[in-house]
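TEACHING EXERCISE
Course module: macromolecular assemblies
Task: Read the component lines below, then compare them to the predicted structure of the full complex.
Student: A.B.
Group: 4
Components provided:
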Amino acid sequence: MEASAATAVRSKTITVEVNGVEYEREVEARRLLIHFLRDDLDLTGSHIGCDTGNCGACSVLYDGLVVKSCMMLAVQADGAKVETVEGLADGNELTDLQRSFTAHHALQCGYCTPGMLMSATALLREKPHPTEDEIRKAIQGNLCRCTGYVNIVEAIRAVSQ
Amino acid sequence: MTETTVAPPKPVVAEPDKPQKGWAGQNVPRKEDKRLLQGAGVFFDDVKRHGMGYVHFVRSPYAHARIRSVDVSKALELDGVYGTLTGDEVAILTDPFFELSVPPGADMKDYALAVGKARFVGEPVAAVVAATRDLARDAAELVEVDYDPLPPLVDARVAEDGGAPILHEEAGSNVVWEGTFDWGDFEGAVAEADHVVKIKELHFDRFSSTPLECSGCLVEYNRGTGQWTMYCNHQMPGVGAIWMAPAMRVGIDKLRFVTQDIGGGFGNKICLHPYFVACCLLARKLNRAVQWTEWRTDQHTANAHGNERWFQEIEVPVNADGTMLGFKVKAVDDCGAFPRYEPLGCIIWAQVTPGCYRWRNIRVDFTQVVTNKSPVSPNRGYSRMQHLWLTERIIDIVAAELGLDPVQVRKQNYVKHEEFPYETPNGCIYDSGDYARCLDIALDLIGYPSLEEKRVDAESRGKLLGVGIGSTLDSGTNNFGQSMILNPELQFSGNNEVATVKLDIFGEIVVTLGTVPQGQGHETTAAQVVADILGCSPDDVHVRAGHDTYWNSHAGFSGTYASQFAVTGLGAVKGATDMLAGEMKKLASVVLGCTPDDIELAGGMARMKANPEVALPFMALGAILNANNAGLPQDLDVTLNCRYVYRPPFEKPDLERKYGNLTLTYASQVHACVVEVDPDTGVYELVDYAAVDDCGNRIHPQIVEGQVHGATAQAIGAATHETFPYDEDGNLLTPNFYDYHVPHALDMPPLKTGFIESESPFTPLGAKGMGEGGGAGIHAVCAALQDALRTRGSPIVTDSCNPYHRVWSLLQDPAASRAGIEISSR
Amino acid sequence: MRVEGEREFAAPRQTVWEVLNDPSRLAKTMPGVQSFDVQDERHWRANLKIPLGPGGLKMSVDFEKGEERELEYAELHAKGNGVGAIMNMDTAFHLSDAGSGTRMKWEADVHILGPIASMGQRVIQPIVNQQVSSVLAALDAQVQEASAAEA
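Instructor-supplied answer key:
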């Protein structure tokens, strides 16, 4: 049976928990999750760096898994628990990972940093003591043009010791 | 990629630790980090205005076409569309952008949108503004443009041939600029030399540093005052305003640039003015804030690339002992469809004319042409990188052909430590350095003495091992007078940067910069310099984030580019802080009844040297002057709000001889790289890598090293995979990250770093600007590949980018690459 | 890109010529034709759905006859527009006798533009080849049908 134009679903009301807070919003069917987070929820910490799902600047945690939120529709997050960089620190208390990033100068312009932090957070939850290779694999989907990854890998490793 | 990578050891310190006095030289935690780590940075796309319209550009699918008509009527009918802008409107409302060149380049017309003709795939032809991003895209698809395709020009080498398509009819030619540079006595050198090595053609590929954050702006127009405010990421607003204001027929003060955090620039956010003008016109026309964010595909196709350059008919006179006497070359530079910042690239290379070498006889015939490709902008390494790659290729090709050791040949030809400051054949002064020593450190880091063993081991695994060296200079702090060599009518010379430092009513120290940081840690290093002078801690110094025209803290050349912040930016900060310190002492001396010389600034106080108990906290000074100043002497010349313009000491160059000092400082880097090549497939791996850096006094060593790491990664990308090839129709084949491979964490070789500090005698802090020296990686990888393939017919690496398929071709047909090599001997 | 080839038809030149010059017949050789309309004897437009990805690529193609020499030579210019793709194709047909049948030599200059050209390079060549063989097969069928009708 073909859906006719009159019955096509153009928007939907979704309920998403982001960083522990529940949000109910109506979204267009074609709205990307990253735009929902940035524009609808004003959570501008996750960034957009490409059109093809390659750069990872938009990485967030979706029910604990790292996903590229530009490769997901907002409607797919209905009922899910999403974590973004804004949810890492506890008020003004930075996490050990964030403090390690600063100590090791693992960020320069800061644009890839939220994505890096989310990928690293997911890794360390699963493997608290990863090898260097496991670290590099975990952030393989996060591109950085400033740091050459050297200090980022160091920062993650230092926290895992 | 192998499974295990070894974490790099800590950088080698070549000097014994210098005694640390003060904050400069220490790794203080970056002020920028706290907000960036929490996703609380403010990048332009994070800024919102109620009711703003989203801009989407309609772009040309043709590389070259006449635009017969643009019909926006269907787009305007779509619900939620606020308005449109077309080339016809732009041609009426604005004048073409200021061109830097002489004719014919001067006659090329450049507008905010394509006017009459499209000249590269992706060129913006019309703009649509709508209530949401998606609606703007929908509407853009409804715009109907009638194109008359024209044959495209995609090879710069034939741009001057009769019958080549002409891009700009008003110019009548594809040449932007051409000229000859001739220093020393090349003919004499040839007559004297034992050998002359000829190389027919080398090619420096198009690529760019592709910052992760795309370009964009949010523009508000104030109807009452005629003022535009652009929340954006333009990295050189001084020059941006110079282009925009006359084109828009408004005073320069009507353009306010506001930036806070920027996700990387690397020179790719310097030529944003055409897009910004389109957005300004729309904001005014629609009486509404408009927002434009560039797509990744747009950045690759229609923002800016690094200059592509062909080096032809190279001739190198060499003596039997390996001393080279100079070289001659015909350079053809492809600057894409519109010059914009060009033709400055036609002279900027001359900052490093002989590269790292003591060559005195150099002739360069330089031509720059337009083609139907993306325009270029000063991508990291701008024009010097291309030229330095040539000098390194010359060294390695000559060494290979004459059977000489590339390490020895370098040391023989390098400018020697004792010769600094060294004047090059065209009058540039290399301030300080020790290239041979950097080379030794690099070779040590990759275990050079044991390379033969490694070669044998690689062979046993069926691999070819090669080692390559890349030496490079990072010339920083431009003398813009070099532009007059290209066009004597231009009124640009010298350089400047501004900073203000004030002591507020409650004793807060507040700094504003004229630079536009994109991750280089300016807030932090500026605070270090201020803290040292005022005797407080960097935590007491508040440096405002970003750049704002309204701070009145900038000048004509303000921005962050050309490896100069440590000199110009920090020079301005030092100047302003010295002024403030002097005023604080003067005021304190009046209050405490002594002379300014009796006062010292320490521990957050202005206190009497003889009796430190007698002290005024900064807060008291601020309060007295700002709120409680009755009774102060009328002639007391103190404001506690100091603005300083740093001007490097430059003269106008000698235009006729094309001679003079073009840059103030010369940082240097030497890289060494070891590759293993699979001879059956051409696939190769970087198995070891060392980068040694010398940028004079390091204000914040971690920041300097971070720059070295990042530049090296970009060089590795440019050497192995990153390139912007076009097909015969002018389509870019790597229009986004899907095809344009940027190194990720697993692509990086084990990276070892080392450094020395050769202080600059010319700068306020003995530091040199740095950040662009990573180009050395391209030179090193090319050299390593050529070395690895020596036993397979000695192919010559002629391109700067060598993806696996190119290496495979060299393996299949080494003779083809050698066809352009000719040696004549006495 | 350039595509060219040669084909023999078991039909006289007149028949082949007529098929090539008949828009309604020519339209039937194009794969995925959904509709077409003839504006005049030199201009017609066809709406196609080319199999490319889910949903296919919808294109409207404007055809214009170029220079021609009866029974020997014909030029056909096509300008196609779809979402994310523009296709310009200039084709020349040469007819000559091959025994009792006809030899047709043809060459086409194909320009593909738009995002599909930048990103789809790898898949474009095979698709073009596939389209070409579909057209030739259909042309064969049309010519046979025309011969049968005449017989």
